[in-house]
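Exercise 7. Given the encoded structure of a 413-residue chain, write a plausible sequence.
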């Protein structure tokens, strides 16, 4: 029995004892990516996919597969000679994870698989997304599969350290979503096979690490790729501003490939000939045509992480005709991402509104990468007081809880 946290950016596996397996060449985090090289029939996943992609980016690099689960518009994609459904694509990745698990002497015959508190606010879409993930797990060769909401899994990991019963708000910040759950935890509840009765309220919002990264891109890097520049659409015509649909696709690594479509490529060629900021359009061209989006967003993410402990950092990125040396202050980052904090606060207030009057939240457990963002922590400190905030390993709390939940989930069946 194992628990698997299939994440937007990273995937992890834990045993029933809560031990996190090091499944990617000694690393506990298995990057949720696939790479299909053009010159080879093999399919690579995790760190191997990243290394090959960075050495020679000729091929298809696929990430953030989880974010497409609620999307009914994403049905199939062409890879080499095959057309794969999203379920088949995710199954390719999960099969790679399963192979790594088996190499460590464990099986995928009984799996507790994490899922967000909400794939969608629409119950039908939410059920559709879960059904797709279940089908992917089955196609990957997993045996019995049970789902557990990720913030509840994080709560179970935190519960292992409690010496007394508490009412806890668990906030799990992923790359794609932030999920919140208010739950009764502690020694008296720990042995219960069904914990659904301990959940007081839960909710989620599409505020995650990816959107914090996008905020930096929009606030600080858009000008480097031609945002606001002008060009001549035809001889004798008035100059036009670069369409916002081009720059907006830079906000999501997944959407950058859409700029390579014929119509947009032709527009970039036109802008290269007549732009008032030709070096920026050259940078845009190379970013898209040389598939450099993943590397750029790795640099953005690294700068964001540094801003958690420093008030100022420099983002350096030199590739092809792209030359970026941009100073970013924490204050600038917080201004750029203020709308995300507002969305997160609104979600928190909505969840708390469903907690019975008079019931006190004893502690707040923050986990996930964005729990380190100072503005996120300040939000919860302002609402509950710094003394009630708790943290643990930001990236493995969920999977530890999924693993610990496995015996109870399968015993209950």
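Solution.
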């Amino acid at each position: 029995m194992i628990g698997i946290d299939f994440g937007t950016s990273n995937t992890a596996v834990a045993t029933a004892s809560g031990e996190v397996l090091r499944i990617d060449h000694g690393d506990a985090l298995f990057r949720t990516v696939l790479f299909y090289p053009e010159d080879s029939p093999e399919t690579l996943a995790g760190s191997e996919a990243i290394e090959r992609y960075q050495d020679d980016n000729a091929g298809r690099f696929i990430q953030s597969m989880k974010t497409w689960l609620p999307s009914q518009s994403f049905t199939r994609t062409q890879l080499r000679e095959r057309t794969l459904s999203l379920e088949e694509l995710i199954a390719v990745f999960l099969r790679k994870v399963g192979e790594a698990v088996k190499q460590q002497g464990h099986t995928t015959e009984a799996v507790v698989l994490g899922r967000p508190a909400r794939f969608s606010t629409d119950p039908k879409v939410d059920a559709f997304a879960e059904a797709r993930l279940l089908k992917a797990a089955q196609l990957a060769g997993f045996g019995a599969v049970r789902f557990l909401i990720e913030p509840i899994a994080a709560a179970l990991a935190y519960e292992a350290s409690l010496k007394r019963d508490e009412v806890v708000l668990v906030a799990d910040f992923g790359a794609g979503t932030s999920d919140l759950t208010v739950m009764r935890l502690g020694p008296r509840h720990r042995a219960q096979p069904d914990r659904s009765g301990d959940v007081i309220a839960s909710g989620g919002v599409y505020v995650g690490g990816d959107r914090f990264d996008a905020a930096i891109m929009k606030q600080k890097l858009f000008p480097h790729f031609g945002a606001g520049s002008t060009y001549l659409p035809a001889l004798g015509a008035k100059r036009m501003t670069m369409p916002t649909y081009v720059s907006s696709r830079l906000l999501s690594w997944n959407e950058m490939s859409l700029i390579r479509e014929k119509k947009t490529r032709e527009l970039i060629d036109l802008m290269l000939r007549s732009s008032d900021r030709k070096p920026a359009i050259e940078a845009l061209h190379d970013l898209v045509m040389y598939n450099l989006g993943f590397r750029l967003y790795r640099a953005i993410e690294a700068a964001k992480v540094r801003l958690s402990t420093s008030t100022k950092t420099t983002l350096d990125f030199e590739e092809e005709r792209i030359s970026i040396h941009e100073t970013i202050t924490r204050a600038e980052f917080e201004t750029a991402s203020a709308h995300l904090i507002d969305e997160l606060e609104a979600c928190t207030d909505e969840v708390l509104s469903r907690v019975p009057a008079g019931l006190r939240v004893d502690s707040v457990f923050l986990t996930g990468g964005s729990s380190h963002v100072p503005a996120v922590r300040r939000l919860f400190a302002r609402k509950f007081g710094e003394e009630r905030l708790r943290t643990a390993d930001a990236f493995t709390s969920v999977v530890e809880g999924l693993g610990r939940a496995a015996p109870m989930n399968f015993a209950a069946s």
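Remark. The longest helix spans residues 86-103. Students should compare their own answers with the one above.
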